[in-house]
């Protein structure tokens, strides 16, 4: 049996191919284990390459981020093709796009294609790269030019956007009056055709159009589903926009494909919209009446105002079941919002025993402090898992998210201080660049910066899917721009900072998982250390202040993560010493509740799914702080008028991980008394410490903020730093891991 390697894990097409192709393995070129599995293959196999940015990102490609797109497209393709063992490769399928055609009226197999769109140019270049390489290696290769895909786990296609806008009563932008003819094909049919191509024993053309072979206008779809005219926004003709795009699928006869395209789109739309809409009317009429009595497990939102309604939307996105709203406004009692009942607290007290309430989210930011305390104390008496949004003083309702929630019970359990948020004068009218902006810390910093009086916030990340997931940030606030870019690309950083006249750079981007970095030394150095040097230098060269987010793992490091972050601190201090005119600070803190990949979400996932709870050591301890607290304090350092220092945050006493797990189990047992957990001790992993510390040797100095301290670090040897840094940077792609580690340790220890 031939193995099928599908490159591009996140692709909708890849996920569906995995279901239909036998012996199929999803591969990410960014994950070393996946790459090793592919390149060490000793059996005949097919390669299906789906690793590419979606068409929806076309308009986001610009001169500022073109290098990143090239790296993620052509460079990644070259990386793959260079290392394949072609003696074992059966067939290669490269998933291209109909966008490679210039006018689109004339499809087919022309070898001399031209397109003004950068996205299409990159696709076309990749086509030639795959074909030329395959021909040279005498391996059968097919370029599959997909037309308009829909269905499956789809968030990008125009069909899904129309459906979503219709179901959720949102506006839809119609270009060129919707007259453009498009060829739509469902992902399930595409997968069947891919399977037939792989199994075909006959010669097929190198270039294969894949669509339905017929077209329909976007306008016709709009009319068919009776999209409300009031929700349509019309825009003028786009330059170089296609009037008609239909695939030439005459080749399908050669693989004996029985055409199943007829009425496929109509059936899909009926299932998604027409049928669903009619069913919803009756279902909601029936369910709303008895919702409280029949659906008894889920989340309760305390507060049915604007904040509560926004929390509701976030919970729906996360597929949470909302039981009901509680509100003390008598005018709202017995009414509903989106078919969710609004009840009084007195009524809630009567019926609460009939429910399994996973958590209560308290969402009344304007409430008086004394009244809030009374309500929260009452809720805590019943041992509910209570989450609280910040006060109105800190919160701008237009960008409220689940990240704003404080885990009241948990925070009190680990003695987190209730922090008051106020304005930070430093950021008035500033342009700020935040790297790692799609991550937990970076995205929260962006949210908080918008609440300050910044002129502009640039949210930069090299993770296209990550940026897509937090797109609501920029959709809801014009102050935020999402930027696709990489901190390892010095030229890109310099140009971006110069063009946009950035005043301040906050560097959150980092690889941070101890276990992964132990096996990926080169990537850790490239991103965490060299990336920091690039960004700090680019910032100072462009007259911008700089702040590095560091970690407690950088203190007396034992792991690759620790060494790479300590080295990042030292190269930052090195550049600061050479340019003392600007603010160049470093802030260290420990674990934050709710960050991606951190301990608590992992424990909660294990508990909620009745899995064994894994901890490495009974006596392992860590510092903890909430995300919004940590991010606020990081930003607050700019107002202290202390520059060129290493700061660390007051995180209270370290918490034993084992005790923390017991507290989480206890919270679960309050909801499900019969819950019987299993705790598994796995042993400390390579590079992992039993305990973490925030500073070593140096006496801590107080600031005017009791939660922030700074250190008077020993002077570093600038000459030795520079020598070892040059060796590290020049040898990053040449030196052995042993040599790289040696230079890394030298840089991290020169203090």
What does this protein structure show overall?
The protein is α/β, with parallel strands linked by helices. It folds into 3 domains: 3-152 and 180-215 and 249-260, Rossmann fold (3-Layer(aba) Sandwich), CATH 3.40.50.720; 295-413, Rossmann fold, CATH 3.40.50.720; 425-749, Rossmann fold. The chain is 39% helix and 19% strand. The radius of gyration is 28 Å and the shape is globular.
List keywords for this structure.
3 domains; 751 residues; Rossmann fold; alpha/beta; 7-stranded mixed sheet; 9-stranded mixed sheet; 24 helices; 35 strands; 19% strand; single chain
Write the layout of secondary structure elements.
Blueprint: E1 3-7, H1 12-20, E2 24-27, H2 32-39, E3 45-49, H3 66-83, E4 89-97, H4 118-136, E5 140-146, E6 148-150, H5 158-167, E7 172-175, E8 181-182, E9 184-186, H6 187-199, E10 207-210, E11 216-217, H7 218-224, E12 232-235, E13 244-245, H8 264-294, E14 297-302, H9 306-317, E15 322-326, E16 336-337, E17 340-343, H10 345-351, E18 356-362, H11 369-381, E19 386-388, E20 406-407, H12 408-413, E21 431-435, H13 440-451, E22 456-461, H14 464-469, H15 472-476, E23 480-484, H16 490-500, E24 504-507, H17 514-518, H18 521-541, E25 545-551, H19 560-578, E26 584-589, E27 591-593, H20 599-608, E28 613-615, E29 621-622, E30 624-626, H21 627-636, E31 646-649, E32 655-656, H22 657-671, E33 679-681, E34 700-702, E35 708-711, H23 718-730, H24 737-749
Parallel strand pairs: 1-2, 1-3, 3-4, 4-5, 5-10, 6-9, 7-12, 8-13, 14-15, 14-18, 15-17, 18-19, 21-22, 21-24, 22-23, 24-25, 25-26, 26-31, 27-30, 28-33
Antiparallel strand pairs: 8-11, 16-17, 19-20, 29-32, 31-35, 34-35
Helix pairs in contact: 1-6, 3-4, 13-21, 16-18, 18-19, 19-23, 19-24, 20-22, 23-24
């Amino acid at each position: 049996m031939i193995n099928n390697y599908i490159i591009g894990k996140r692709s909708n097409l890849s996920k569906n191919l995995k279901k239909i192709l036998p012996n199929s393995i999803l591969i990410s070129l960014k994950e070393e284990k996946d790459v090793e599995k592919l390149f060490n293959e000793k059996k005949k196999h097919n390669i299906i390459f789906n690793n590419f940015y979606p068409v929806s990102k076309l308009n986001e490609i610009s001169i500022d981020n073109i290098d990143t797109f090239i790296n993620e497209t052509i460079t990644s393709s070259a990386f793959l093709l260079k290392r394949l063992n072609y003696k074992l490769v059966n067939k290669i399928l490269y998933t291209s796009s109909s966008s490679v055609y210039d006018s689109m009226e004339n499809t087919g197999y022309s070898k001399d294609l031209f397109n003004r769109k950068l996205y299409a140019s990159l696709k076309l270049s990749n086509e030639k790269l795959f074909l030329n390489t395959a021909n040279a290696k005498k391996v059968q290769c097919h370029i599959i030019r997909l037309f308009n895909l829909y269905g499956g786990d789809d968030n990008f296609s125009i069909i899904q956007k129309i459906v979503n806008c219709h179901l959720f009563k949102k506006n839809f932008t119609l270009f060129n009056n919707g007259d453009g003819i498009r060829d739509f094909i469902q992902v399930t049919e595409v997968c069947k055709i891919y399977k037939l191509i792989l199994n075909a024993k006959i010669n097929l053309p190198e270039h294969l159009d894949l669509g339905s072979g017929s077209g329909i206008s976007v306008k016709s779809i709009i009319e068919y589903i009776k999209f409300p005219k009031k929700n349509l926004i019309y825009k003028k003709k786009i330059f170089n926009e296609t009037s008609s795009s239909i695939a030439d699928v005459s080749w399908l006869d050669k693989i004996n494909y029985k055409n199943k395209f007829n009425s496929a789109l109509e059936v899909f739309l009926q299932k998604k919209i027409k049928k669903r809409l009619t069913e919803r009317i009756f279902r909601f009429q029936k369910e709303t009446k008895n919702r409280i009595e029949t659906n008894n497990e889920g989340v309760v939102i305390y507060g049915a105002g604007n904040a509560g309604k926004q929390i509701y939307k976030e919970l729906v996105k996360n597929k949470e079941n909302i039981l009901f709203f509680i509100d003390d406004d008598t005018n709202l009692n017995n009414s509903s919002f989106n078919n969710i009942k609004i009840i009084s607290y007195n009524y809630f007290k009567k019926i609460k025993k009939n429910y399994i309430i996973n958590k209560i989210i308290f969402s009344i930011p304007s409430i008086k402090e004394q009244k809030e305390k009374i309500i929260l104390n009452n809720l805590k008496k019943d041992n509910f898992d209570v989450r609280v949004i910040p006060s109105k003083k800190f919160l701008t309702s237009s960008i409220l998210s689940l990240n704003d929630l404080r885990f009241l019970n948990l925070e009190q359990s680990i003695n987190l201080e209730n922090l008051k948020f106020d304005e930070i004068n430093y950021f008035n009218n500033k342009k700020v660049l935040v790297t790692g902006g799609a991550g937990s810390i970076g995205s929260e910093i962006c949210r908080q910066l918008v609440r300050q009086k910044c002129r502009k916030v640039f949210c930069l990340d090299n993770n296209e899917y990550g940026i897509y997931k937090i797109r609501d940030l920029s959709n809801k606030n014009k102050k935020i721009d999402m930027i696709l870019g990489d901190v390892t690309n010095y030229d890109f950083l310099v140009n971006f900072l110069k063009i946009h006249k950035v005043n301040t750079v906050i560097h959150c981007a980092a690889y941070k998982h101890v276990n992964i970095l132990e096996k990926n030394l080169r990537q850790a150095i490239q991103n965490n250390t060299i990336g920091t040097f690039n960004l700090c230098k680019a910032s100072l060269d462009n007259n911008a202040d700089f702040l590095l987010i560091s970690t407690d793992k950088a203190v007396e490091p034992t792991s690759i993560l620790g060494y790479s972050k300590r080295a990042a601190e030292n190269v930052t201090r090195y550049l600061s010493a050479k340019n003392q005119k600007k603010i160049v600070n470093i802030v260290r803190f420990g674990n934050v509740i709710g960050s991606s990949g951190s301990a608590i979400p992992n424990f909660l996932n294990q508990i909620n799914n009745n899995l064994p709870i894994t901890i490495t050591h009974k006596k392992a301890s860590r510092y903890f702080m909430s995300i919004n607290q940590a991010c606020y304090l990081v930003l607050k350092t700019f107002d202290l008028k202390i520059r060129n220092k290493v700061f660390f945050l007051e995180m209270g006493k370290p918490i034993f991980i084992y005790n923390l797990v017991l507290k989480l189990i206890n919270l679960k047992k309050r909801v499900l008394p019969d819950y019987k957990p299993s705790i598994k001790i796995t042993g400390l992993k390579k590079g992992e410490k039993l305990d973490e510390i925030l500073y070593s040797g140096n006496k801590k100095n107080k600031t005017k903020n009791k939660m922030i301290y700074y250190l008077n670090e020993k002077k570093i040897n600038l000459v030795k730093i520079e020598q070892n840094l040059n060796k590290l940077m020049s040898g990053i792609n040449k030196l052995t891991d042993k040599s790289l580690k040696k230079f890394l340790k030298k840089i991290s220890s020169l203090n």
